[in-house]
């Protein structure tokens, strides 16, 4: 994946980094918030899944790590993210979902944004206990076309197996198998703690209770995001 020649953007608008453990609800919220706020939804997991589906060299590299519940190496992930940030739609601002996953990625993001005159405006952290994450991921179904997420108990589609939004088939992600979910949580929660501390130290962290229903999480997120991005100088 490469940015179109001559179209790489050199500025960037508002930047929101949505933080949360696997299954906390980042994708669910990012799809709604990006629409409401007019920000491009940039999800590194979605970019990797598209590469796996298309059988690209990036997808072949990423798949082994994803299947083992490990983070894909920074060298690969950062290059992919920087190419995505260079696309024209990022100029209006971005909502990041799944990046950064460690402090090295957070540092590179800060540098890349600074080069475009931007910064992370707010990093909302959707907090959900580990026991709930296992139940959420085990019952999740997502749509083939655009990754809209559903849950067999808490967010059922109107018609079983069919996406309400675009009519595509629903499927379960390979990394939502019970053993892979355990590996993802075991291997990734420590790095998430460090990223949370990083943004707390930078004064942009905002914790939000992720245990309440989806609409309530959305309104709580808007309460912290809107003032932060409106106040941008
Ligand atoms: P990625 O796709 O980013 O997965 P993740 O972070 O593990 O998070 P999920 O997508 O599983 O969960 P989510 O928080 O989006 O929850 P969702 O909204 O779907 O990454 C996948 C893999 O790619 C990684 O493991 C890694 O290998 C690699 N990767 C990606 N980015 C990387 C990076 N930067 N560096 C290195 N490697 C990287 O919700 C989950 C379920 O809960 C759904 O069923 C939903 O309906 C339900 N739900 C949501 N909210 C609620 C609620 N409030 N109440 C009840 N149910 C709810
Ligand atoms: Mg997601």
The biggest beta sheet reads: 5 strands, parallel
In CATH, what is the class of one domain? Answer: Alpha Beta
Instruction: Please report the total strand number as a whole number.
Output: 8
Q: Label the CATH architecture of one domain.
A: 3-Layer(aba) Sandwich
Contiguous uncertain segments of 5+ residues: 1-6
Computed CA radius of gyration, to the nearest angstrom: 17 Å
Give the termini separation.
33 Å
Please state the overall shape, judged from the principal axes of the Cα atoms. globular
What does the model show?
The chain contains eight helices and eight strands. 47% of the residues lie in helices and 15% in strands. The chain has a domain at 14-129 and 190-230: Rossmann fold. By secondary structure, it is α/β, with parallel strands linked by helices. The chain has helices at 26-37, 44-54, 57-67, 74-85, 103-115, 130-138, 178-201, 214-230, and strands spanning 14-20, 40-43, 93-97, 123-127, 140-143, 149-151, 170-171, 205-209. A five-stranded parallel sheet has the order 2-3-1-4-8, sandwiched between helices. It has a three-stranded antiparallel sheet with strand order 6-5-7.
Descriptive tags:
single chain, 233 residues, alpha/beta, Rossmann fold, 8 helices, 15% strand, disordered N terminus, binds BIS(adenosine)-5'-pentaphosphate, binds magnesium ion
